[in-house]
Design a protein that fits this description.
The chain is an alpha/beta fold. Helices cover 45% and strands 15% of the residues.
């Protein structure tokens, strides 16, 4: 089907192309009667505006890119929903891409978004991202960039984060205050900043409460998933035979793997081993026992990330200076039956 043009609408009505264009844009110097005739003709012809041409004229595409490590993660799915709602309110479309924690794929996705001419990019970095030239390319192209959740401190742009050190510190301190002393930690990969910071919070809480840090109680979970939680609990108890009374994990999904192993082996939670997660996933409130967790407030993160990006896009179009900012979203402890 051939796409209808403004010229065809104008010829059918016997008026100029500029009058048709003005009528569709509701200009005040076009009569209401003419506007009604133009709108009716546009509907009859099934006319839709040339978005690409409009974007060239307005220097904006009304599109942003969103890159996340995983769409199935409860935290990120909430962020996606919020950003989509906020974008719709501003008449923006969102191109959603999933890096699958793959650095090479993440680089290709950045190139794709640049080539698509997006007005701005939101990204939570993959666990394997250890070089940031692709992010610098975004900045060099003068495209507003906002990092959230998993960030790097080496790129000058706006960021939306939580205080991972404090959140982890608070969770471990809670366990200590409840009488737990041998607290194992199932941490994330060595690279992401949030994984590093949560580990630092865990370690500092022990030290501040005169509990000697024991590196043998720290297990790395690169994917931070259910399987790693289960397998590392098995290793901790059956293979390494560590004497522990609590396990703190990088994510709730990892913690649910821990709980599954402990339940299968009749290890009482929290009487024998307490469990504490991170992210307050929906499943945390319905498993047995229910899981204590750190609430990250994903909705606030998504809303603030879009808000900052939108403001930077607007300031760029107005020729105003963009002042980069780092926003810290509050967290809270959600205490349930697992500790």
């Amino acid at each position: 089907m051939t796409k209808t043009t403004l010229k065809e609408i104008a010829e059918s009505l016997g008026i100029s192309i500029s009058t048709v264009s003005k009528a569709l844009k509701n200009y005040p110097d076009v009569s209401q009667r003419t506007k009604q005739k133009v709108i009716a003709a546009a509907k009859a012809f099934n006319y839709s505006p040339n978005v690409f041409a409009q974007s060239l004229r307005s220097n904006r595409s009304q599109t942003i890119g969103l890159i996340i490590p995983s769409t199935v993660h409860y935290y990120f799915s909430n962020i996606i929903n919020v950003i989509l709602k906020e974008a719709e309110l501003k008449d923006y479309m969102v191109i959603i891409l999933q890096s699958n924690e793959d650095f090479e794929l993440e680089k290709k996705q950045i190139d794709l978004l640049i080539n698509k001419g997006v007005d701005g990019i939101l990204i939570s970095l993959s666990n394997n991202t250890n070089d940031f030239k692709h992010l610098q390319k975004v900045i060099d192209y003068n495209i507003p960039l906002v990092l959230f959740d998993k960030i790097t401190k080496l790129i000058r742009c706006s960021k939306v984060i939580i205080n991972d050190i404090k959140a982890s510190y608070d969770a471990v301190t809670y366990l200590i205050n409840k009488g737990y002393r041998r607290i194992a930690y199932f941490r994330g990969d060595l690279n992401p900043q949030n994984s590093i910071d949560r580990f630092l919070g865990y370690k500092k809480a022990l030290e501040d409460h005169n509990i000697k840090y024991d590196a043998s109680l720290v297990y790395i979970c690169p994917k931070a998933n259910f399987e790693e939680g289960y397998a590392n609990t098995k290793k901790l108890i059956e293979v390494d035979k560590k004497n522990i009374d609590a396990i703190f994990t990088i994510t709730d999904l990892t913690a649910i793997g821990v709980i599954n192993y402990l339940n299968e082996h009749k290890i009482k939670i929290p009487d024998e081993v307490a469990v504490f997660g991170f992210s307050n996933w929906f499943m945390s409130s319905v498993i047995t026992p229910t899981l204590s967790s750190v609430e990250q407030n994903a909705n606030d993160t998504g809303r603030k990330s879009f808000e900052i990006l939108f403001d930077e896009i607007e300031n760029k179009l107005k020729g105003l200076e963009i002042n980069h900012q780092t926003i810290t979203i509050d967290t809270e402890l959600i205490i349930r039956d697992s500790c």
